[in-house]
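Bumping with the actual sequence this time:
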Amino acid sequence: MASLLSDLLSESPRAAIGSSVQPSCVPNRRDFLIRASRLGIMLPAVGAALDACSKESSPPASKVATAGESTGTPLVSHQNPDSRADSILHTPHIASSATASATAGAATVAFHRYDPILPPASVSRVLTLNWTAKEAPIRISTSTVVAGWTFEGDIPGPIVHCRVGDTVNFTLGVDGQMPHSMDFHAAQIDPKTAFRSVAAGQTQSFTFKPKYAGAFLYHCGTAPVLMHIGSGMFGAIIVDPPTPLAPAKEFVLIQNEFYLAPVANGVQASDYTKMLAMTPDLVCFNGRPNQYQEAPLRVKRGDRVRFYVVSAGPSHPCNFHVVGEQFDTVYLGAPPGSAIHGVQTFSISPGGGMIFELIADVAGEFPFVNHGFGHGQKGAIGMLVVE
């Protein structure tokens, strides 16, 4: 056993198993476990060595950054396994979104409906965005205020509308306790450089030109990404094809999940344990449950209606359906290609976006829903009124 474990540790300083010398930390636990499985080692037999490695590599509690001390919330050590942003900035993250600025003044925050109408694209082919990541309380219903982490002070962030080949100049500043970052799914760019995390008072800038048309997600990519998206740091960038699509009434719907702790001082913080278990309390279109039932989307009979639907997750898909209608066109990829026709429901994976079109040729009230009704009935439902 000792010789096999020694072979596993051959790329790092070795340690004598059973001696008082502890093994040096293995740089890559995944590689270690893969090599262990190839040699047929039972993982419990090497557990003690791994535990010693983890303890050796973890900083003492007294040396951990004080990101959560103001609220007394425990720190978590989860790092984002899918992004290299943490190679730039390592900061422990709290297991709750209840930072001081995310909870201050919660009782006085007013509710506002998120406008789903696609704003017009800029006349200029150069789009300059100077945004701030802010932690702030957001009222998502008359009875619920969340401790939000936001882009530009709202959940979701602003809808960005541009064209294929436009130049997007983006700068992110941070006004809050936590580090944040920006990941545009419409960009082709080195993420380690462009999507790196920045701390309060710093800025990060990058430029990209969208190559493909479609409905794309943007989100914070700072570890743990689950916490940052789940606390509100997401939005949509809509990219038009070089030849515009047919005129339509155009709406942007971004589905997201909220995982909430009990009310404390009038606000509900994000609960990281619930996020890991993927058990949302609410599932919403544009950050507010049922808001488009109370204030429906309205079109005229004969209108072409185009939905840009993005699934921000962080963990569940959107199974998009309009009750009493069918989609005459759904774009699976960049429009105007990749279209399918006569579709009743289509699933959009977390991190994805699609474009749905129908002709409103029948007057009436048409619910649009996540047809995964365990989530639809948690708030992912609205009403399209054809007059």
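The tokens above came from a reply further down the thread. The longest helix spans residues 43-57.
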